[in-house]
Amino acid sequence: MEEKIYDVPSEWKHRAYLDDAGYRAKYEASVKNPEAFWAEEAKRIHWFKPPTRIKNTNFGPENVSIRWFEDGVTNVAYNCIDRHLHTRGDQVAIIWEGDNPSESKKITYRELHAEVNRMANIMRNRGVGKGDRVTIYMPMIPEAAYAMLACARLGAIHSVVFGGFSPDSLASRIQDAKSAFVITADEGLRGGRKVPLKVNVDAAIETVGPGVVDHVLVVRRTGGAVNMVPGRDVYYDEAAKLVSDDCPYEEMNAEDPLFILYTSGSTGTPKGVLHTTGGYLVYAAMTHNYVFDYHDGDIYWCTADVGWVTGHSYIVYGPLANGATTLMFEGVPTYPTISRFWDVIDKHQVNIFYTAPTAIRSLMQAGEEPVKKTSRKSLRLLGSVGEPINPEAWEWYHRVVGDGRCPIVDTWWQTETGGILITPLPGATKLKPGSATRPFFGVKPQVVDAEGKVLEGACEGNLVIADSWPGQMRTVYGDHERFVQTYFSTYPGKYFTGDGCRRDADGYYWITGRVDDVINVSGHRMGTAEVESALVAHPKVSEAAVVGYPHDIKGQGIYAYVTLMAGEQPSEDLRKELVAWVRKEIGPIASPDLIQFAPGLPKTRSGKIMRRILRKIAEDEFGSLGDTSTLADPTVVDDLITNRQNKR
Ligand code: WTA
C-alpha cells in the first residue's frame, strides 16, 4: 500500500515557530547538551529562585532517581495566574461550555485569581497545607480547575479522580493517598443525565472508614438535594462568602510533588503516578507552546476530562502557564446533537482542537453532513491523543473536520510522561496518517527487541526512552520499588513505555499499541487485572481472564472469559448481571463488551493462564495460536474456539 504524505501547508511555513531545519537543529541541540538546553527552556516559567542544577537523573539499574531543576524555587499557581495579571488580567483564561448549549461563561485571569484564592483560603482554613493530599472528584466545571490550582497554590498534592469512577474506585484512591480533604459537586451533568457525585463520595468515605476524610467541599452544580454531614461537609458557595480572595502562595521546591494521578498497569491496583513541580510545568508549557503552535490570542480546546492526564497537562497547566485561553467542555460530543463539537467550535471561534480517535470514529458513523453544516472556519490545527489513530479516521478528521486545511498533530504520550513525547510540529513535520512521527525536543526514543537489543533504522519492537525529560513521573506514590520494577526492570537502564512500535525508513514512529496487559478502551487505560478482580469478586464467578480485542469505535473492547462456580449455569441474565457488577465495582468505562462463559481456561501445568491464546481467540485469529502443547489441558482451547465461533 502506498503511504500517503502530507506536506506542511504553505501558510504554516509563515506562521509556525519552526520549519523542518529548525526542528532538526533544535532537536540535535537538545539531545547533545541537555543541561544547556533545559537551563534555557526553564526560563519560560518564573522562578523565585532560578535553578542552577539542571539535570540529575539516573535510569539505573541501581538507584533509579529523577530530579530536574532541583534547587529551583517556584509555584505552579503563581505561574498559571499571578504572573499574567499585569499583562492579561482582563483576558479570558477559561471559556466554560456547559452540557446544555444555553449555558456557558468566560472567566478572565483576574477572576481566576480571585476564585482560586478563595478556594485556597477555604482549604487553608481547614488545615490544608504543603504536602497534604486533596482528592478532587468533579464534573467538568471551572471549579475543578480552581481546585487543582488552589492545591498548587498551597503546595498541597491533588489527586483528581475521574467522575465516571465508582465509589469503590474512589475509595481505594482516597485510601492510598490518605487524603483528608475531598472536593466534589452535588451532581455532575453529562448528555442531559445527572451523575450522583456526592452520593458516590459518601459511599466511598463509608468504605474507607472513619478517621481518614475530615472535610468534603461541595460545589453546587445542579442544586440537587444531597446529604450534608455536619462538621464534615460544606458548600463551596457558602464557604466562599466567608473568605478573602487573596491567599499567599507557597514557595515550592522544583521537586516538591504537584499531583498524584492514578493509572492502570499490567498488574495490581492502579498506581499513583507522582509528578513534581518545576520539570512538569516547564515541560507541559513548552510542549503546549510548540506542538499546538500556540500564539497569543488563540482559542484552544482540548476535549479531555480533567480526570485524565490530558486534562491536567493540556486543559489546565500547559495552557494557563502560557497565558492561553483554554476551553472546558462539560458535555459529550453527541448532545444535544451529533454536531455539538463543531457547534462549539463555531460558537467560541476555536482555533486549535485536540480530541481522541474514539470520538472521531464514533462521529464518522453519522456521515459528513452534521460536520459540513457548520463553518469551522476558525480552525487552524487539529490534534489527536490517547490511542493509535487508524488512517481512515485520520483522513476523515483531516478532510471533513479540517476541510483539508488543518494539519493533525498525532501526539503520543502517557500519564507517566507528563507531556507529549512523540509528535509532529505543525510547521515542520510532513504528516503520515497513523504515525506520531518524530520525537519532541530532548526525547530519545529507541526501539528494542525482546532481549533489549537496540534496533537501528527501519524496525519494529518495543518502545523505550533512553534518557530522562523534565515532565517524567518521579515515583509511584508510596512505592518507589514498584516504580523501578514497572518501568526500569524490563530493559535495565531504560524507561519502558509498555508500547510496541515500528520505526520507518524516514525515522517516523508508528505506535502499534500496548504490549503488556493494559488495554485501551475509547482512549481510557484499563488494566485487565482490575477487571478480572472485579469479576471474581462476584459470588457466582470462580475465575476470569480479560483481554482486549479490536473494536471499531472504542479501538479496543473488553473481552472477558468467565468460569462459573460449580453448580452455576450460564445465562443471558447472568451475563447482564456481570456487566452491571463490573460497572458498579470500577465504573462504566470498564464494562465488558463480550463475556464468554468458559468451563475452563487455558493454563500451563504450573497453573498460569496463557493470555496469548485468549487474546488470539478474542481477535478471531484461530490459525495463529502458537504452541499449545504446554497446556495442562489442551482441549479447553477447542471449546473456547467453538464457543467464540458460535457467537459470530
Ligand atoms: C496510548 C494518555 C498511539 C499508548 C495521554 C500509551 C497512544 C497510552 C497515543 C497512555 C497516540 C496515547 N498514538 N497510542 N498518539 N497516545 N497512546 O496514560 O498505548 O491514559 O501507552 O495517557 O495510550 O495512556 P494514558
List the SSEs and their pairings.
Layout: H1 10-15, H2 20-32, H3 34-41, E1 55-58, E2 65-68, E3 73-74, H4 76-80, H5 85-88, E4 92-97, E5 104-108, H6 109-125, E6 133-137, H7 142-154, E7 157-160, H8 167-177, E8 181-185, E9 188-190, E10 193-195, H9 197-208, E11 215-219, E12 233-235, H10 236-240, E13 252-253, E14 257-263, E15 271-276, H11 278-291, E16 299-302, H12 309-321, E17 325-329, H13 340-348, E18 352-355, H14 357-364, H15 369-372, E19 381-385, H16 391-401, E20 408-411, E21 445-448, E22 454-455, E23 459-465, E24 475-476, H17 480-488, E25 495-503, E26 509-514, E27 518-521, E28 524-527, H18 528-536, E29 541-551, E30 555-564, H19 572-585, E31 594-597, H20 611-618, H21 635-647
Parallel strand pairs: 4-17, 6-7, 6-8, 7-14, 8-11, 11-12, 16-17, 16-18, 18-19, 19-20, 30-31
Antiparallel strand pairs: 1-2, 3-13, 4-5, 9-10, 14-15, 15-24, 21-22, 21-23, 23-25, 25-26, 27-28, 29-30
Helix pairs in contact: 2-3, 6-7, 8-9, 11-12, 14-16
3D structure, described in words:
This protein has a domain at 522-643: GMP Synthetase, Chain A, domain 3, CATH 3.30.300. Helix content is 32%, strand content 23%. It has 21 helices and 31 strands. An eight-stranded mixed beta sheet has the order 12-11-8-6-7-14-15-24, with helices on both faces. The site of 5'-O-[(S)-ethoxy(hydroxy)phosphoryl]adenosine has 24 residues, from helix 12, strand 19, strand 20, strand 25 and strand 26. The site of 5'-O-[(S)-ethoxy(hydroxy)phosphoryl]adenosine (WTA) has 24 residues, from helix 12, strand 19, strand 20, strand 25 and strand 26. Its cofactor is Mg(2+). It comes from Microvirga flocculans. CoA binds at residues 190-193, 310, 522, 583.
